[in-house]
Design goal:
mainly alpha, 65% helix, globular
């Protein structure tokens, strides 16, 4: 993938706004519990239940749609990096100033990620399995190599994946030398050393190392889209790279299972393929076919991604639900608890969207 000329002001990539907005819309929808209601055992055997299942992480070995959301998020950040830093250069910032900003941003992401889960009943804990904490690592590692040739970036990303594979398979500590068994692998052992293990969900902090590939591949995609290649050439490269990732990832799954919770090599590769294909579809639909008017609904959510994620996460969604719940159950309770609950979640989701719309309308964008 070719590098762009930083002396040229990049055009706004509307497909990236759409992709980011769709991802953030799904993330905040999770806080409304809408997907949980769709996954209710009472609906088992229905199409609603089957759809709801795709909006929950796979319990261990396998891949569902919801397992792609974090790779989407990290990949999108990578795509935006060449655009962001090019604009900073346009404003006259030096390389050292940009580097300082990158490290500051990574540190803030780490603190925010830790802060969301730092309190366990009665004590302060250190856990770094969530998307913001993980992103702080992938972001800075991707930044450190983003000005290298594309070949170097690709090699570095696969070295991180290979390193992870080797460490997991060769870790010698008894009881944690089963690379693909929950809580009996290197990732869990590492988190136990600083008291940050997530034994119930099986997530591990070391995931940030292999999934750095997602952010690096996002940077490469962003550099490709900023290049002087034709739109069709860019689209073909995205599709070919995406198909290769999906095919290779699934082909290697008999050797290394696809496990998101510990970000195995096959998971990183196959999910990376899907992210590239999703960006390709967004680019074709929004920037090539110019189907843009309707996409504003999602794009406004992507304009304030950090704010709306934190707002929903720290209690904003719960607060809105506490206000809406009495009214929906009064008016629609006769239709059944499940139906009233789904309607409540849908209304809360709309209100979260409206907050994004209001911020966009008033040109208020909260960034770090």
């Amino acid at each position: 993938m070719s590098q762009s000329n930083p002396s040229q002001a990049p055009e706004r990539l509307l497909s990236l706004d759409f992709f980011r907005g769709a991802t953030m819309f799904l993330l905040i929808a999770e806080f409304t519990h809408l997907f949980s209601f769709m996954y209710d055992p009472a609906l088992e055997g229905t199409i609603i239940y089957a759809i709801g299942e795709q909006f929950h992480h796979h319990p261990w070995n396998g891949l569902r749609f919801w397992d792609l959301i974090q790779p989407y998020f990290m990949f999108i950040v990578g795509v935006a990096m060449p655009y962001s830093f090019s604009n900073r250069k346009k404003r006259g910032q030096t390389h050292s100033q940009i580097t300082k900003h990158a490290f500051q941003r990574a540190f803030i992401l780490l603190i925010l990620g830790w802060g969301l889960y730092c309190i366990d009943p009665g004590k302060i804990v250190f856990r770094f399995q969530n998307v913001l904490a993980q992103l702080s690592v992938t972001y800075i590692l991707a930044y450190l190599v983003m000005n290298k040739p594309a070949k170097v970036q690709i090699i570095f990303s696969f070295l991180l994946i290979a390193l992870t594979e080797v460490i997991y398979r060769g870790f010698p500590v008894e009881g944690f030398n089963h690379p693909f068994i929950a809580n009996e692998n290197f990732g869990t052992w590492l988190d136990l050393q600083y008291g940050g293990a997530n034994l119930n969900g099986h997530w591990v902090s070391f995931n940030a190392i292999p999934t750095t590939a997602h952010t690096i591949w996002g940077v490469l995609a962003g550099q490709l889209l900023m290049s002087k290649r034709t739109a069709i050439q860019k689209l073909k490269i995205l599709i070919i790279a995406g198909v290769i990732g999906v095919v290779v990832g699934y082909a290697l799954s008999p050797l290394t299972p696809i496990i998101k919770r510990i970000s195995t090599s096959t998971f990183v590769i196959v999910s990376g393929g899907w992210t590239l294909l999703t960006l390709a579809f967004s680019y074709w639909l929004i920037d090539i076919k110019k189907r843009q008017k309707w996409s504003v609904f999602l794009r406004v959510v992507g304009m304030n991604p950090l704010f709306i994620y934190l707002f929903a996460h720290v209690g904003g969604a719960v607060f809105l639900e506490s206000i809406i719940h009495p009214f929906t159950f009064l008016l629609f309770g006769w239709m059944g608890t499940l139906t009233a609950s789904i309607l409540t979640s849908a209304i809360v989701l709309f209100l979260l969207w409206y907050i994004c719309q209001w911020l966009h309308k008033n040109k208020i964008y909260i960034r770090i």
